[in-house]
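== Sequence entry ==
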Amino acid sequence: MIIRDKSNSFALLFAWHGTILPKVLPALSVVVLISTIIVYLSSQHYFTFPAVPAIGFTVFGIILSIFLSFRNTACYDRWWEGRKLWGALIATSRHISRDSHVLNDNERRIMMYRVMLFTGLLRNRLRNSQQSIEYYRDKVNFNEQQFNALSSHINASQYVLEEIQKSLVQSLKSGEISDIIYQGLNHHIVELGAIQAGCDRILSTPLPYSYSVLLHRTVYCFCLILPFSLESSLGIWTPVIVSLIAYLFLGLDALSAELEEPFGLQDNDLPLDSITRLIEREMLSSLGEELLEPIQLVKSNLT
């Protein structure tokens, strides 16, 4: 995720890295080029382009604005829900860190490492990635076959939760913990499962494809019509005004597409690596073990 100091308004005007401009620049350049050609041909009286009726163009723009606003709101809701779920994951890991002191030292250590492993596997699942989990090989009390099978398991993070549950049930049966302690710790495991289910829901249910395609096509059609509608009234200012309006509509369309998939690797997607490392560092600190290096968010400058 890109973060930026927003207190400098002047710097924000010239921001590039982490903005939506690089993605829409090719389409924006085409629109500006068309505007320039139309202005030149008209000013030299080579050809007069018929103006698009103002009333139709205005209604078109208003309707498009409403639907773009709805789509951006829906996409931001997905992004924000994803962030809330990962915020809940941080909170639940902290609850487990505190409440697991009732276990003996070895069982607590294994449980906390398994929670850390669950977090890493959930990140990999949401990003369809294979980031290494070798760090946990000798720490989660899995045999070689169990650990190697995680990379090909249909739901590796759920499997880790099941193993945590089995260990708690075994401790309950052996009398190491009471049923009240078991229920308290089990509640946290249920919360982890609910967080994963929420993330899976976001991942597997994007906005309807036909709706996104319809809006995408409409935005591009609107931007291509802009020069023909505004040239007769704006004259040589047409490329400037058209570029600003097109940047707004093209940018909103591209931004909504980026926010729609909050767990990806684009500049404004959720910082899952950083959150995962935060959980690892806090749990390792509670265990009194050596901390891993933090992963910082990208602090972008003007470039």
Observations:
- The longest strand covers residues 2-3.
- The mean pLDDT is 87.
- Strands lie at 2-3, 298-299.
- The radius of gyration is 26 Å.
